[in-house]
Design brief:
This protein has two domains: 12-127, Orthogonal Bundle (Arc Repressor Mutant, subunit A), CATH 1.10.10.10; 129-163, no CATH class. The chain contains seven helices and three strands; from the N terminus they run H-H-E-H-H-E-E-H-H-H. It has helices spanning 12-33, 43-52, 57-64, 68-80, 101-127, 132-145, 148-159; strands spanning 55-56, 84-88, 95-99. By secondary structure, it is mainly alpha-helical. A hairpin with a 6-residue loop joins strand 2 (84-88) and strand 3 (95-99). The protein starts with 11 loop residues before the first helix and ends with a helix.
Length: 163
């Protein structure tokens, strides 16, 4: 999935989505070639469960650094595919997520995939003028200091545009 269109019309969001799609598609293909019905989006949840053990969706979201909504949607998809199971917590509204036997048996294969993927990411970083991982961390830190909505509002007032 490559494109030659490098026009100025490609906005930040479009470029980021295109990059993420390219990376996720390749990683998903690697999982499929190994016979795994596994998606890249499962990894933060899976790793959080490896670190925490059985946990609430809220704890998984915090550990993984994703929103509660993203964690909840990912857990639901993982449950459908047999990677996790849901049980009731102390509070009836709370679900406790646990890795299934299928997931536990796949840990060594997944860890090899993660190591290979990290090696491939490092290879990509070496080809860039600035390592992508460093640039992404820097961008996230900048947005934590001043959110994008604050930047939009500042630009709006500077340009005297009504949004």
């Amino acid at each position: 999935m490559t494109t030659k269109n490098t026009s100025a019309q490609q906005t930040l969001g479009t470029l980021l989505r295109h990059l993420a799609e390219n990376l996720d598609l390749a990683v998903e293909q690697a999982y499929a070639r190994s016979g795994l019905d596994y998606r890249p989006r499962y990894t933060p949840v899976f790793r959080a469960l490896l670190d925490l053990g059985p946990s609430s969706i809220q704890a998984i979201a915090f550990q993984a650094g994703i929103t509660h909504s993203a964690a909840s949607q990912t857990v639901a998809e993982m449950a459908k595919r047999g990677w996790v199971q849901l049980g009731k917590g102390a509070d009836a509204r709370q679900h406790i997520v646990t890795l299934t036997r299928q997931a536990e048996e796949a840990i060594p294969v997944l860890q090899r995939h993660w190591a290979v993927t990290m090696s491939a990411a490092n290879s990509l970083d070496r080809e860039l003028s600035v390592p992508l991982t460093d640039l992404l961390r820097e961008a996230i830190e900048a947005l934590e200091r001043t959110s994008f909505i604050e930047r939009i509002e500042r630009a709006n007032s500077e340009l005297k545009v009504i949004l």
